[in-house]
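Appendix B. Raw example, untouched.
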Amino acid sequence: MTTKELWDDNAYSAVESLRAALGGVGIVLPSLRVDLASPELRLVELGRVRADVAVRLAQALRHGAEE
């Protein structure tokens, strides 16, 4: 995906892309959604997660950075 494609993505496709990627490593962010308060900013609300999920997310990011 090019940088331009990343910027052109809308918040809904970004949420679905992130949800799919996280699901691929067994991580679920229950509050993951589009932030409807500022649609022009295309913000994604990651929400709150339990500590064990945050640790698994950090591990997944570290593992991805090593590749």
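End of appendix B.
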